[in-house]
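Example 613, ligand 6-O-phosphono-alpha-D-glucopyranose.
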Amino acid sequence: MCGIVGYIGSKDAYPILINGLKRLEYRGYDSAGIAVIGEKTKIFKKKGKVNDLDKLVGDNDISGSIGIGHTRWATHGEPNDTNAHPHTSQQGKFTVIHNGIIENYSRLKTKLEDRGYNFKSKTDTEVLANLIEYIYLKGKGEIDAEQAVRLALSKVIGAYGIVVIAQDEPDKLIAARKGSPLVIGIGEGEYFIASDATPIIEYTDSVIYLNNDNVAVIKKDQLTLKTINNDKLEPSIQKLTMDIGSIEKNGYEHFMLKEIFEQPRSITDTFRGRVAADLSEIRLGGLHDVMPQLENAKRIIIIACGTSWHAGLVGEYLIETFARIPVEVEYGSEFRYRNPIIYKDDVVIAISQSGETADTLAAINIAKEAGATVLGICNVVGASIPRETDAGVYTHAGPEIGVASTKAFTAQVTVLTMISLILGNNKGFLNKKEYQNLIKNLVEIPGKIEEILKLDKEIIEISEKYKDATNFLYLGRGYLFPVALEGALKLKEISYIHAEGYPAAEMKHGPIALIDKNMPVVVVATKDKSYEKIVSNIQEVKARNGIVIAVVTKGDTIIKNMADHVLEVPETDEALAPLLTVVPLQLLSYHIAVMRGCDVDQPRNLAKSVTVE
Ligand code: G6P
């Protein structure tokens, strides 16, 4: 989604801003812009990539040591040069960059138009810039820029993370947050601001996360934090744990490929320090205080969006199998608007890589209001979801930059596996031997993924054959049904080939009509209790001349004789098979997308973190 970066200090702002915008590219955007205060404020903005903006700036004078930059993902107004941020108010008093949506912008706009304001863009952000200016000028010198920002924000309904430059007070940046994240990096005689920590980490590891309704006035050697109502706040300084290597490609052609190959490490990081060295037990410190609620829950509701929702579905199978607690898996966007029934003894688990997904956050608030215990499974440390929930577990997969989620998914499934095993053991549904055997299986997963990654060459050959297909079908049963959904999502996200994931047996109720000699069908069919059934499903596809690409357990001979291609993965307990079988599907979609010339890390129209509904 949109990205924000800002700098105030003694260095040249432009290189820091443009580099910061490049770091934020992964969030997804359609235009970018920059404003630097020198002798006067210089603004450049452009539809397209950050490189296009850099070219536009070219040899122009952009000197100055205070500035702001923005990558935009269009919500109000099409992506073009005019709608790109920053937006400057009519008389040039204020320049604003903004993430989020101002819901009452059209009413505010009409009021401003009645008072003589004209608008150049179609954005809600320009309305905000003009509103701040209107209030400031109406104050006739009685109020300063910061007061004008706070008063304007008190009239705004919606979500925002903003950074404002004021023409009359060119020694400061004014930042405010409601809903859209902002983090301030503290340097020596300088401050950085950004919508996530990735543009900041190379300069400092001391940060302040703004909370909702916080306003920060930042000068190069002073930071003042207050609420929108002008109550002073003491900033809480935190240390970033991310390292710079984790946000670079390290020799891989794309972040997505790096992140797929990182999974043995990222999964190990997820269970590190949580699985006892002698594999006797799993401890999740973040859930310690809420264990009674979890164990006694009559129902668990999992809330998520996108890939995280698929991880949630795996969680449903795991928790119901091992802990015998009924689980419902909900999309945040549906849950929040359908007046759901929530009981006080429900436990709600929100799953999110970014911890900022607007629909998931809104659903959390509804669950909290209803009195349920709300837990989070999140990758980004310090994000909104971990802060809004009662307790939770970080996935520790490290920064995920590729828009298509890969290592975050396997880390989420690892956490859900750990939760289900702890609950199964505590509630007595798993005996000690079963519990410890499953733990052993879990710690063997990273090594087994190393083996699967060696299939890369074979997968490239298969990709070559089917890269021009227009449709793909993905089938799986039980634990592997969510994997089929995830495989299909990966392919459509980055290669733009239409793909559907289906429970294999449901194929007969519709998708079978699509099967012909041009239709690749990816079947996830490792050895488990529905193996015989899925073999029949493969026969049904072959009987209609479909092409079968099967992910099977090493040594499988039955499917090998039927399928056009098999990809063998090592054996594991069926409950852990999603962690292995998803990997070849990630690689398949990656290679197909690369062969089709698609922008794998920044697929069109998609955003890494969806902070608007
Ligand atoms: C976007 C991303 C997906 C992600 C989804 C949910 O659509 O492109 O990769 O799965 O949001 O995001 P979250 O951060 O809540 O997991």
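Summary: The longest helix spans residues 432-453.
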